[in-house]
């Protein structure tokens, strides 16, 4: 089983929104075969708490425009690692230090990556 087309569309929109707010190291994984609760993860990071919040707000706004509302939003107070759960997808926006420490890419490396649209740019420092 693979991520649904709807999940892939949401991932693309979320990745574009993150890119628009200068997110770093944007990557998506198809976790549908590993998890029953969601189809895909999007990971993105930022160098500071303010930018983490900006990325989260933009992702949420863009996905609301597509009719997707978050079921859960966690970690917003600290701005170090914010999780947006949209059901079909989960978006993780992390401060770069948390990204390095928790290394979610390593945890999900056995899952296939989802190709992101060509206009999605991971802004590196």
TrEMBL record:
Molecular-function GO term, any one: ribosomal large subunit binding
UniProt keyword Repressor, yes or no: yes
Superkingdom of origin: Bacteria
UniProt GO BP: cytosolic ribosome assembly; negative regulation of ribosome biogenesis; negative regulation of translation
Compartments where found: Cytoplasm
GO cellular component: cytoplasm
InterPro entries: Iojap/RsfS/C7orf30, NT_sf
Entry keywords, A to Z: Cytoplasm, Repressor, Translation regulation
Main location (coarse class): cytoplasm
Summary of the function given for this chain in its UniProt record: Functions as a ribosomal silencing factor. Interacts with ribosomal protein uL14 (rplN), blocking formation of intersubunit bridge B8. Prevents association of the 30S and 50S ribosomal subunits and the formation of functional ribosomes, thus repressing translation.
Subunit structure comment from the entry: Interacts with ribosomal protein uL14 (rplN).
Family: Belongs to the Iojap/RsfS family.
This protein's name: Ribosomal silencing factor RsfS
Native species: Nocardioides terrae
């Amino acid at each position: 089983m693979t991520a649904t087309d709807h999940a892939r569309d949401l991932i693309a929109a979320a990745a574009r929104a993150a890119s628009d707010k200068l997110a770093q190291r944007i990557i998506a994984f198809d976790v549908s075969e590993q998890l029953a609760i969601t189809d895909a993860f999007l990971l993105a990071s930022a160098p500071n708490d303010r930018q983490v919040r900006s990325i989260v707000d933009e992702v949420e706004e863009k996905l609301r425009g597509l009719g997707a509302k978050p079921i859960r939003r966690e970690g917003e107070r600290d701005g170090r690692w914010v999780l947006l759960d949209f059901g079909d997808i989960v978006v993780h926006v992390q401060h770069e230090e948390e990204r390095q420490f928790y290394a979610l890419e390593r945890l999900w490396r056995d899952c296939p990556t989802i190709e992101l649209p060509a206009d999605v740019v991971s802004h590196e420092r």
